[in-house]
Amino acid sequence: MNLRLEKFDCKVIKILRKYSDEISRGALFIIFVWFGFLKTIGLSPAAELVVALMNETFLNGLSPDMFLIGFGWFEVLIGIMVLFPRVERFTFLFMGFHMMTTVMPLFLLTEVAWYAPFVPTLVGQYIIKNLALISVGLLLFARLKPMTKTHKISGEEYK
């Protein structure tokens, strides 16, 4: 292999390893804050889906407008929290809950999410892409130090 290409490859990998957490946090921040804020001001293209899901669950007695605003602020909160490493465990708990709720239309609103088995609508694709957000969250969570005083994971000792 070309020596210059190998050096370039190593430099890129080194930079990405050094900044991948910050890049991932920034991406999650942008997605959660942006999409959440759109819900709070009534401009989200997902508003109809969120309200339809609300009506299919035990939350159907709530005001759709208030629920949408609250859900939007919950997303904004997750986006802000992801920037602060000290609250990561809470952030990922909230994010996990959020992701469980956002996947529900695949099962509860099948007419909106699927054209046919294994053929998602645009809404279904929008929901399925959340697998990428879940993966980014899991990668960040995997980098946490264990809460125990002394613990080994894959030969690394944390104190």
Description of the molecule:
- This protein is mainly alpha-helical.
- It has one domain (22-148).
- Helices cover 69% and strands 7% of the residues.
- It is built from 8 helices and 4 strands; from the N terminus they run H-H-H-H-H-H-E-E-H-H-E-E.
- The strands form 2 sheets. Strands 1-2 form a two-stranded antiparallel ribbon. Strands 3-4 form a two-stranded antiparallel ribbon.
- A hairpin with a 2-residue loop joins strand 3 (151-153) and strand 4 (156-158).
- Helix 1 (3-40) packs antiparallel against helix 3, helix 1 crosses helix 8 and helix 4 runs antiparallel to helix 8.
- The longest helix has 38 residues, at 3-40.
- 14% of the residues are buried.
Keyword list:
single chain; 8 helices; two-stranded antiparallel ribbon; two-stranded antiparallel sheet; mainly alpha; 159 residues; 4 strands
Largest sheet: number of strands, sense, barrel closure: 2 strands, antiparallel
Per DSSP E runs of 2 or more residues, the count of β-strands stands at 4
Structural class estimated from helices and strands: mainly alpha
Strand arrangement within the widest β-sheet reads 1-2
**Which percent band covers the strand fraction?**
5-15%
